[in-house]
Amino acid sequence: MLFGTAKMNRENHLEIGGCDTVKLAQKFGTPLFVYDVAHIRAQARGFKQTLNQLGIKNKVVYASKAFSCLAIYQVLKEEDIACDVVSGGELFTALKGGMEPAEIEFHGNNKTPEELRYALDNKIGTIVIDNFYEIDLLEELLATRNQTQKVLFR
């Protein structure tokens, strides 16, 4: 079963997004991950359209653990989709990919002081607090700043 833009071409090769996967493998080697941007965009739009048609106030949030790279964040920004991140590395990549800081939710059960500082420095939308240690740490970090932070308790 093929989905998105996937199809079998005249050479009986799998084609995704108009790209022959055999030729891609020959050029780049294997294993090789190929993402169908048209399908990703269609899925993002479908979620938003369905919720909007139902009259449900919504915010669609992409889970970065599924795949984190500059290009995916650029697509998310273009489609007005928020994202969650679980590490300083994912946060860095999301910001470099053009995500609006206000559209980033910082999850994770073991955030370091450095990661939380980085999130605060970049005015991340929401920090999801996972334990009492994070409450104390965030309170300590915010005490030295003239800043507030939106949080969500998990």
UniProtKB/TrEMBL annotation:
Pfam families linked: Orn_Arg_deC_N (PF02784)
Protein name, UniProt field: Diaminopimelate decarboxylase
Gene3D superfamilies, per database record: Alanine racemase, Lyase, Ornithine Decarboxylase, Chain A, domain 1
**Which residues are in the Orn/DAP/Arg decarboxylase 2 N-terminal domain?**
38-149
Q: Print the keywords alphabetically.
A: Pyridoxal phosphate
Keyword check for Calcium: no
What SUPFAM superfamilies does this protein's entry cite?
Answer: PLP-binding barrel
Q: Which GO terms describe its molecular function?
A: diaminopimelate decarboxylase activity
Cofactor(s) of this protein: pyridoxal 5'-phosphate
Q: Which GO terms describe its biological process?
A: lysine biosynthetic process via diaminopimelate
Organism in which the protein naturally occurs: Enterococcus faecalis
